[in-house]
Amino acid sequence: MDGPADRGLDERIDDLEALYQDLHAHPELAFEERRTAALVAGRLAAAGYAVTTGVGGTGVVGVLDNGAGPTVLLRADMDALPVREVERVPYRGTATATDPDGATVPVMHACGHDTHVTALVGAVEQLAATRSAWSGRVLAVFQPAEEIGAGARAMLADGFLDRFPRFDVALGQHITSAPSGHLYARPGVFMAAADRPPRRCSSRAGAWLAAADHRG
Ligand SMILES: [Zn+2]
């Protein structure tokens, strides 16, 4: 991959790695992503995007108009989880927060949303820097509260579809356990299930689940 739109990409890596480590060291729970949102808004504005903050709570939307062509929505989620980090990396998160029940909980980017934010910041900055190589419109969406399944709905309830350009295609992302350098893609839902097995089920169903689990 080495075209006009890739120009300068390698020089961004150190800066993006620093951004990732900063985000990882400062995780924030769902709808509390104020520091993350402010960081993102600053980067978007510096890159030339029209920025709207506070969409659906802490959501951030950036729009880059670059002539005729499709409008592409690129999305990342920003929130972390109430999980204690045991990794010994120097940039590990040591933050605590108060959860909605009033309990003090540890916070960690255990689901990789720090990576998602970094990747999208890198992509939108790269697109802005190489805008002579493409035309169309970028709609960058940094969504709050994915972990509790509420952030996208909150952005929609805040008039997202009316306030921002209609898009032709939407691309989400999620990291996964896979060999480094690999990218997996498919249309439709991918890594987006939030279902749990029912807590109560019949003994026959339970036996089947146990058997299936054993086989798996
Ligand atoms: Zn996630």
TrEMBL record:
SUPFAM superfamilies found in the cross-reference section? Zn-dependent exopeptidases
Pfam families listed in its UniProt record:
Peptidase_M20
Q: Which species is this record about?
A: Pseudonocardia humida
Q: What is this protein called?
A: M20/M25/M40 family metallo-hydrolase
